[in-house]
């Protein structure tokens, strides 16, 4: 009876919020896009969201969606992708009665290292597993930005290398504000043009599973073993279709306006859903 009540509550939330499947990453087989809603008791859920300024109505709706999802899925923490740090409007406008108020918020721009502006947060998972959450100040890695101290970039990459070498975790997620993938239009479709090769090489070398950032020219790109995921902000809709090239680089172009991602971390896979106010995609109902 308890199980029946649980899935009905979850389904009701999905019907009202309209979830769209994003991607499933599986450790036991090559990366692929799969629909999977087989939640297990030991799964951990968290939310990632694009911070920044929104109109009051849009911000209120977004926070309400996040509250409902946090309650329905027992979300453990929130990753906030923002250049504003703790002063981000989403954090500032969470009310005292909201379930989001009691959750840890890990925000880009908030650092344990004043010198470098980055942090490592190790999150314990069931069965002795660990999730590494690493934040990088990616503005310093953009090629079109002239830094007063060119050595800063080297220090940052050295810090990331030492951090990844010193930790052994089941899952690794790197979070930064800026996308690391650029695109170009070919035959009316957006395809990958290039990516930040030094970081991509480091990600594949040390087993980074996901790079999370604000949304650029893509929703997600799957290259080698790394998923580059753009978190939605307020973007214009377009009609580009998914495309895939021969080197297994997948691109799904942006088609949402205001939403966030729900992540599920389990023993062998990480699933991501996009929570928005339209484009409904409903899972099958579990057996009672």
From TrEMBL:
<feature type="signal peptide">
    <location>
        <begin position="1"/>
        <end position="20"/>
    </location>
</feature>
<dbReference type="InterPro" id="IPR029052">
    <property type="entry name" value="Metallo-depent_PP-like"/>
</dbReference>
<protein>
    <recommendedName>
        <fullName>Calcineurin-like phosphoesterase domain-containing protein</fullName>
    </recommendedName>
</protein>
<keyword id="KW-0732">Signal</keyword>
């Amino acid at each position: 009876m308890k199980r029946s009540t649980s899935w009905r509550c979850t389904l009701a939330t999905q019907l009202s919020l309209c979830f769209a499947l994003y991607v499933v990453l599986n450790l036991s087989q090559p990366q692929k896009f799969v629909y999977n809603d087989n939640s297990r008791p030991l799964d951990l859920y968290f939310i990632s969201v694009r911070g920044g300024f929104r109109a009051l109505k849009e911000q209120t709706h977004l926070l309400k969606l996040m509250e409902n999802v946090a309650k329905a899925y027992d979300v453990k923490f929130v990753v906030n992708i923002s250049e504003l740090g703790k002063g981000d409007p989403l954090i500032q406008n969470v009310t005292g009665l909201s379930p989001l108020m009691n959750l840890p918020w890990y925000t880009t721009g908030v650092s344990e290292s004043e010198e470098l502006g980055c942090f490592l947060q190790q999150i314990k998972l069931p069965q002795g597993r660990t999730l590494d959450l690493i934040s990088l100040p990616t503005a310093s890695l953009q090629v079109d930005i002239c830094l007063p101290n060119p050595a800063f970039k080297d220090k940052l990459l050295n810090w990331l290398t030492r951090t990844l070498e010193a930790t052994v975790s089941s899952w690794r997620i790197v979070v930064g504000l800026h996308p690391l993938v650029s695109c170009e239009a070919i035959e009316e479709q957006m395809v990958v043009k290039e990516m930040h090769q030094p970081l991509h090489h480091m990600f594949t070398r040390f087993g980074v599973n996901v790079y999370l950032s604000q949304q650029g020219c893509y929703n997600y790109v799957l290259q080698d073993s790394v998923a580059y995921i753009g978190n939605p902000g307020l973007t214009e809709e377009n009609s580009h279709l998914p495309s895939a090239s021969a080197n297994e680089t997948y691109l799904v172009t942006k088609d949402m306006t205001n939403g966030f991602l729900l992540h599920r971390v389990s023993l062998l896979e990480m699933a991501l859903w996009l929570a928005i106010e339209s484009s409904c995609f409903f899972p099958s109902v579990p057996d009672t």
